[in-house]
Structures are given as C-alpha cells and as structure tokens.
C-alpha cells in the first residue's frame, strides 16, 4: 500500500476498529489464506466478492484459468500489472495487518474524509455515515460496504 494511503488508513482504522470491536469483534482468528475466520469478521467469501467485482478485467487477463478461490492470490502475484481499482482491492483484502488496513478503510478513505469528517469513529458510526451517502460513493467503496460486515469496517 502506498505510504499516504497507509497513513490515512491507519489514522482512520484505530477508531473504526473500536466500533467494530463493540459490534462483536474482529473476526474469528486466522483462517485459510491469512484472512479472518468467518461470520461477519471476514473470510474468503467476503474478500472474494470485493476482488471479483473490482477486478474482472484483471482476472480475465492474468488469472482466467485459476479457480475463484485462488484468484486473489493469483492477482497478488501480478501486483505491478494490475489496474488501480484492482490493485487497491487486492491490497485491502490482504491478510489482516491491523487497524486501518481492511477493505472499507482502504477503499472508502476519500469518502470518509469527504462525507464523515466529524463523525466519531466508534460503534460503526462511520459505516452508518457512509451508508447514508451510498448514492454518492465511488463504486469501490460501495463494493467494500456491500461485501463486508461491520467487523471489516477497520
């Protein structure tokens, strides 16, 4: 992830993680592929939806013969060749590296700064704010919101 993105994501993520933890935790441990276990905390199904929706051309170009469950890892191996939306999707769905690195924080950072600058970052309030502005959000942010649960709002 680019340094500027990481700094903003980290600043937003700590507060977002507090809200996610208050809503039931951050996921069920480390599951296959280094992702959160299951339920609302993450898992392959959630990141797979994000990558599939934001990377169709990249999947077709680089990973068409790879089964769906392996496409994110395939794309990660081609990181320098990916389109910008796909690169962001792949980076934001990587193994959990702590607060501020999840899909919503990464894919919605511009929208959070624009629509929710005064919103307190606790108990899912930023996620609710983004949902209220859904019609105005960029497609990658909408995809992240629709394909993650509250615990991913980090």
UniProtKB/TrEMBL annotation:
<feature type="signal peptide">
    <location>
        <begin position="1"/>
        <end position="22"/>
    </location>
</feature>
<keyword id="KW-0732">Signal</keyword>
<dbReference type="GO" id="GO:0016020">
    <property type="term" value="C:membrane"/>
</dbReference>
<protein>
    <recommendedName>
        <fullName>Cysteine rich repeat-containing protein</fullName>
    </recommendedName>
</protein>
<dbReference type="InterPro" id="IPR001893">
    <property type="entry name" value="Cys-rich_GLG1_repeat"/>
</dbReference>
<dbReference type="Pfam" id="PF00839">
    <property type="entry name" value="Cys_rich_FGFR"/>
</dbReference>
